[in-house]
Prior knowledge:
By secondary structure, the chain is α/β, with parallel strands linked by helices. The chain has 13 helices and 12 strands. The longest helix is centred in the N-terminal third of the chain and has 11 residues.
Amino acid sequence: MSNLIKELYSYLNNKIDVKIISLDKQEDRKIKDNINIKKPYIINLLRKLKKEKYDILVIFNTIESPAKALFYYLPILMIKKRKILYQGTYLKKGLFYSLFLKLFDRVFCVSPYINNSIKKELGNRCKYIPPGVNMKNLSYVKEIKKNKRVRIGFFGHLNENKGSKILIDAFLKVKSKDCELIIAGKGKMSRYLIDKSSGRDNILIYNYLKNVKSFIKSCDIICLPFLRSDKILGLSLTGIEAKAMGKVLIGSDAKAISQIINDKEDGFIIKDRKELLKKI
């Protein structure tokens, strides 16, 4: 489940009655008001929605295809309740683009880029509301102990789009031994990263981390070398959290990253692999 939804839930829970509905995921089961839907998802979701009495239904969408999203959320869209879409990634324009968007009373977008795209279709029914972090909660996060080396971190899905491959390749060319790299996450690039880090005591590869914020807090630099951002949350929440903790960000010019970095002020925006190595 997205950290953004967890933050939103913790804020709203004491004010209104909130229920989170998600697919059957192990890491979500411990959340008090989370309702896990098991297979077949569409049938079970429709049953649950008919049974419960909701006033407002909010969909947090990260599906880029309108046709796929329409099918995926069909049980929710069939319910005659006020519906709000929180669009978390770029929505491709196509046959079902207008139909999907017009099924919602309001559409909120996580970035100006996504908002400007959808606003052409919906006008004032669309609004930009960026994801945020709870600064008070971040102040309570305990930092993982570290040595005297400068610590560079990457936290997220280990797929090609997120750029973990080009990050480790760049780091291996860094001549200084006074720095270390931490990469944490799951994905197809895991084997490549483990093989590349073999025999290096200054590269640490982790799987899923429950206390990821403690690791972020221990870093001096956070790298976000995304190759593209259309399949990624409209704004990087890891980047927002790291920035809130006072970390230097090095990120690509992909819109999911470049919109949260003030180049040469609180971080660096890079355009290619050579610039990534230079800024590190």
